[in-house]
Fold this protein.
Amino acid sequence: MALIAGCRTPFAKAGTVYRDLTAVDLARACVRELVERSEADPAWIDTVVMGQVIPSIAAPNLAREVVLGTGLPVSIPAHTVNRACASAGEAIAEVVDEIRDGHAAVGIAGGAESLSDIPILHSRRMAKALVEASKARTLGGKLKAFSKLRPKDLAPQTPAIAEPSTGLTMGQSAEKMAKENGISREEQDWIAYLSHRNAAAGVDDGRLTAEMCTVLLPPRYETAVSVDNLIRRDTTPEALAALPPVFDKKYGTVTAGNASPLTDGAAAVLLMSESRAKEEGLAPLAFVRSWAVAAVDPGGQLLMGPGIAIPKALDRAGLELADMDLIEMHEAFAAQVASNIQALESPQWAKEKLGRSEPVGKVDRDKLNVMGGSIAVGHPFGATGARIATTLANELKRRKGRYGLLSICAQGGMGFAMVLER
Ligand SMILES: CC(C)(COP(=O)(O)OP(=O)(O)OC[C@H]1O[C@@H](n2cnc3c(N)ncnc32)[C@H](O)[C@@H]1OP(=O)(O)O)[C@@H](O)C(=O)NCCC(=O)NCCS
């Protein structure tokens, strides 16, 4: 399956430049640009699949709103998927499968998230009272519906970035992993430092900015956002070491510096069957060779899914970790990256979790996240998979590499991995 092109919006810290935009606005901006840049005729597109983790109640099927708002033919069916932080990866996998099954020849896959525009809900008791009041025929009846409410029922409910089955936040889960796997603060801060350093280099030489479209801001649409606003080019290991832990204030090691930030943004890729790409005279950036998902018990170490999904995707590709020219690991937290690398290199992990006698292999750090990762660039949950696939494909081409691996950890103990080939 051919990956023809990828594009994303600049990513921004939630509540900053995109605070007046929605995930749909961001997704439309990036898909519009993707179609233009790839020189695809919109009439070719058979399917659009997008990821979103916290959908808006006004537009829950983001993908279809993208089709309807970007001048794409209204006849393109579109659906939205949620595999937590791996949602855009899942969207890519679904379009790949649709093409492989012959149900589509050309598709767009990606995702978006606006943490500036999360649904803020009433409590269940307040919602019940509102429904009861709406049905009451008299003023007395309406007032009676609210009479049972307590002050705490008036408090708004916001989505928690926490595991529903355990109640632990993602950050607390990363802390648990750091402690149980002996991941030091120094190692976490070093991963974070490299993330910013590599991303800043990618902006300076234009490799990273080349993947971004420009987003015009309301109300006048005169101000343009054309670069990420989370990359800290001036950060140092010393500055990172000085930050206080956030999720375990006394004994913790996870800080605002070595965690991915809450982010707004969108990303998408154009996929096509190989034969169709040839027919249209388009040169693919890369080919999707395999993909896999896996899941672990969220009550154990939550973000270890990649440690199982990676060997599965490699097996399906008939390749070894050592064959990879580049590796892109989503950085939810530096502690999660380090923990998964440790697992891939561990004979014990291989034996106990994979039933193998040999470890999956050594991760060459020089090939890892060479244009930065989610810590520096940001992590709009629904979009990250398409951001990573685009970067991996572009960089494989630049380096004349053959194989690239990407992995994403996700809520629910899930992991996603994909192998690209050139
Ligand atoms: C960790 C988290 C709570 C921090 O949020 P925040 O407090 O808004 O973070 P900020 O950007 O304001 O950073 C806090 C401080 O650290 C500083 N800081 C952050 N990164 C830094 C860096 N790389 N170098 C130096 N200083 C840094 C900031 O300047 C700020 O300093 P100030 O308080 O003096 O202004 C938030 O990003 C978070 O919840 N992340 C995890 C998201 C998550 O769970 N995702 C799911 C992944 S699967």
